[in-house]
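Q: Predict the assembly, please.
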Amino acid sequence: MDMDFIPYGKQWIDDDDIDEVVNVLKSDWVTTGPKIKEFEDALCSYIGCRHCVAVNSGTSALDIAVQSLDLPKGSEIITTPFTFVATSNAILYNGLKPVFADICSDTFNIDPISIREKITKDTRAIIYVDYAGQPCDIKAIKDIADEFDLFLIEDACHALGAEYNGRKVGNFADMTVFSFHPVKHITTGEGGAVVTNNRELYDKMLLLRSHGIDKNAHERYGPNASWAYDMKYLGRNYRITDFQAALGISQLKKIDKFIGRRQEIADKYNEAFADVPYITPQSTVSSMKNAWHLYTILLDSGIYRNDFFAKMREKNIGVNLHYIPIYKFTYYKNNFKLNDDEYPVTEDIFNRIITLPLFPLMRDEDVLSVIDATVASIKELSNSGR
Ligand SMILES: Cc1ncc(COP(=O)(O)O)c(C=O)c1O
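A: Predicted assembly structure:
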């Protein structure tokens, strides 16, 4: 098979995006200038929410979201182990304790029943992740939060543009976090944002983004500047640059096209795999709009995931694995009492899952190559008698 390598994800940057970046580079403000607020406003109007703080990564966004809650020492935050480490690292950065709940066997999102079982007198918040771009069972999670008076942070790094009950993700939790890494729906190189409808949290996160200082650079260095400023919180420098924001604004104009193409590719995969033995695609809930960050399949018993992974890589298909459960990592094992057996669903899914390439710039022939390679690999392995 003569074929170029197809990665699992990739950005789509056109000349119009590049022109916007160049314009900013030639302007007076390359950082802390007017493009930041313009990008934040564009995100708010796309999502239909009130406030947005753009930062330099999704990880930073999660960090200031947790920090803004100002939770007492010893607080526990319940989250999913089936996510990128950044989700629970944000809890650690703030000196708090992550507690992992198990996931649902069909959507791979956090299981509300398991959340209930993990609540203790120290639980203060839940961080739920819309895995692969499909919203969680938000109603069930909100009910738990209301009952136990918990804060909610939605890690929607996979889910910009996704909808729950006809409303865009970004309007349900106290704060919702997005990432603009190149494999995500839109990119700013590195970048992220927190959105909220809560003015108090917004005001605080604006300061946390920039050292906890209560004046921005424009006020400090502009023509009417005074020398005075205060530092109210222990903030960081998580600022995003104006040329990144300009890229974000330009990319956001194309998000419907990007997500539409993701949906088209996912439909092609679903159709192609419907009758292929040993494969179960991730199930989708029809009442939700999936933003399709990832397309994953489960391999049924009889096909070993690692063998399938190797076969696909031999065929130049950039399959990947999302995710190694967080409780398996050395740092977490060394610092917390974590037992793999407590998460039977996560364990089962982890052993069987694989991510196929999905990005809007994929051509139809790339999609066909992935389908052909998948079917061929299943055939080879199911005949191998291992
Ligand atoms: C679920 C999830 N949360 C957080 C992040 C962190 O985002 P970033 O890479 O922009 O820091 C990622 C990035 O891959 C992610 O997938």
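The chain has 14 helices and 13 strands. The first strand starts at residue 51 and ends at 55.
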